[in-house]
Write a structure and sequence with these properties.
This protein has helices at about 5-20, 50-55, 90-95, 115, 135-145, 150-165, 190-200, 220-225, 240-245, 250-255, 265, 275-289; strands spanning about 25, 35, 45, 65, 80-85, 85-90, 100-105, 120-125, 175-180, 180, 185, 200-205, 230, 260. With about 290 residues, the protein is an alpha/beta fold. Residues about 5-20 have low confidence and may be disordered.
Length: about 290
């Protein structure tokens, strides 16, 4: 066989193998098969925690568009914003020419999936409601980009395991978890914030409510009268949080000054920083038991 022909054949074979190795099919949280012919190069993240996880996976230089409030790491603040609480700007999104769009189901309209796919982007939908979703979604970014995410994923799992071990023998305590105050709002069901409370030996007294972020009436709160109130995201700082609750002096937690304020960015977003928020939460609850 002619040497040049042979060499060309080998080169073509290697290219085909390389292409096949780069192609990947991922199953999103809607059960859809999402296909990428090659590693994602232009990524749009449609939730702040997804933006943060993309950077944590080492794909920050591939993120070309984000959602509102994508403020961590600082580099994310300079990226174009293509979505907000009112929805996604399809025109702005299309202008960025993404090949991979990852969205949070709770803030995304599934009717937009085919519209986004029309301009060539693979759309991946996630729920992101449990602590174990952090390493799982890191692996998603790893599979979509071809990057090795084993180290950050293992670090997260190790930090959470250490917190579970440290606080596993704490006496259980009931708390009210406030994520907003006008109207009074909490977190219910199987959710990473309730997972965080459980690690610390605490239980949200409204965990059994329907929905993800149910509103709570003041009458209900007075009836359950939890011994501790934890706030995150409902005020600008601890002083404002405590001042807000001072208007309800007959509640047991307020009367005994058992109020804990935790930074929202480390507790309301499931990211690599979440163990920091859990550590703050556990330490605060230990002081108030």
């Amino acid at each position: 066989m002619n040497r040049d022909v042979y060499a060309a054949g080998i080169a073509a074979f290697c290219l085909a193998v390389s292409f096949a190795a780069a192609a990947v099919t991922l199953k999103d949280d809607l059960g859809r098969d999402v296909a990428l012919a090659q590693p994602a190069r232009r990524i749009v993240t449609l939730a702040p925690f997804l933006t943060e996880l993309a950077f944590a996976a080492g794909a920050g230089d591939r993120v070309v568009g984000v959602s509102a409030y994508s403020d961590y790491p600082p580099a994310a603040r300079a990226l174009p914003i293509v979505s907000s609480a009112v929805g996604v700007s399809l025109e702005q999104l299309a202008a960025l020419k993404p090949d991979f769009v990852i969205a949070w189901r709770d803030s995304f309209r599934v009717e937009d999936i085919p519209r986004i796919e029309q301009f060539g982007a693979a759309v991946f939908i996630v729920h992101g409601r449990r602590l174990e979703d952090v390493p799982r979604l890191l692996r998603t970014f790893g599979a979509a980009t071809g990057l090795d995410v084993s180290a950050p994923g293992a670090r997260f799992e190790s930090e959470v395991a250490a917190l579970r071990a440290k606080y596993s023998r704490r006496a259980p305590v009931d708390v009210f978890l406030e994520i907003w105050n006008k109207p009074l709002t909490t977190i219910a069901g199987d959710h990473f914030m309730n997972d965080a409370l459980a690690i610390c030996g605490a239980r949200n007294v409204f965990k059994d409510r329907a929905g993800v972020a149910p509103q709570v009436s003041w009458e209900e709160l007075y009836v359950r009268d939890p011994p501790i109130i934890v706030g995150t995201g409902s005020a600008a700082n601890a002083a404002e949080f405590q001042a807000n609750w001072s208007a309800h002096p007959t509640l047991s937690a307020v009367k005994a000054r058992r109020l804990a304020w935790i930074d929202a960015d480390t507790l309301q977003r499931p990211t690599l920083r979440t163990p920091q928020g859990i550590a703050q939460l556990c330490a605060a609850l230990d002081r108030l038991r």
